[in-house]
Amino acid sequence: MLRDTETSSVPARSPKLQRAPIGRMVALSLGTAGVFGVNSIFFFISQNHLGNIASSIENLQALDHTISNERNEIIPALRQGQKLCLNSFPDGCQPYVEALLFLRNRASDYSAALEADFEATENSPIIKELTALSDATNQVAAQGYGLSFPRAKSLGIFSPEAYIGFVKDNEGKPNAAAFETQSTAIAIKAVKVFNGLSDYSSAYAKTVPNFQATQTLTTTLYWIIVLAEILVFSLVGSIALLNTRAEALSKKTALRDGSQ
């Protein structure tokens, strides 16, 4: 009897004391969940930014490759074509007209690409230079062969062969001296424009954020998300376990008090 009395006199741990750590853990889990949510937003922003940087780098590499190849292709073609043309004017001018039309088309293509992917506008110096280059190709055609490209297009003339054939046999008024002057000038202008394209690409590359640094930041944010998620799940599990024990203790205390 004495042993039973001593046992019953030991105070049981209060359910309120059992639930006190739960409140703190709930607050901690909510704070961790907040960190998880905010960090997730920054992670997705950083991930999207990383994709944009990668795309910009790929576009720059493609642009630089194209500029280099076409500089080495178009300029020699213009100069060689000019020699052939002057040696047999205008019969031997078809290769030159091919190079001139290619240059005209590529000037328009570069303008469209720079405005679409490299933040150039119609007021950008490089766009104005490309526009002037395209206009210069028409001056060569109009003054050298007596047939502008817009007029040739309106007449349904689309190939260099048909163009030279029309110049020889119809209304064209070829002028060898004017051709030599204009073709020499446009070759010089083309070199300057290609140099300008390279300069613009180099300047734009300096505005692109560092890929490696952004990738490191994105990776760090990702692992913070992973750790925060693990911590949240661990806290939720611990809260559930403590809550179950507190409920069991509460029931046990209620039964004991009822039996007394």
How is the topology of this model organized?
Elements: H1 2-8, H2 15-87, H3 94-117, H4 125-145, H5 149-154, H6 160-169, H7 176-205, H8 211-259
Helix pairs in contact: 2-3, 2-7, 2-8, 3-4, 3-6, 4-7
Please give a quick description of this structure:
The protein has 260 residues and is mainly alpha-helical. It has helices at 2-8, 15-87, 94-117, 125-145, 149-154, 160-169, 176-205, 211-259.
Number of strands: 0
Number of helices: 8
Instruction: Please bin the fraction of helical residues.
Output: over 70%
Shape: rod-shaped
Amino- and carboxy-terminal Cα gap:
16 Å
The count of domains is 2
Helix-strand string: HHHHHHHH
The pLDDT mean sits at 79
Rg estimate, integer Å: 39 Å
Uncertain segments: 1-13
| Oligomeric category | single chain
Could you tell me the strand content as a percent range? under 5%
Largest sheet: none
Structural class: mainly alpha
Q: Which features characterize this protein?
A:
disordered N terminus, single chain, 85% helix, 2 domains, mainly alpha, 0% strand, 260 residues
Description:
- The chain is mostly helical and 260 residues long.
- It has 2 domains: 42-209; 212-260.
- 85% of the residues lie in helices and 0% in strands.
- It contains 8 helices and no strands.
- The radius of gyration is 39 Å and the shape is rod-shaped.
- The model is unreliable at 1-13 (pLDDT under 50).
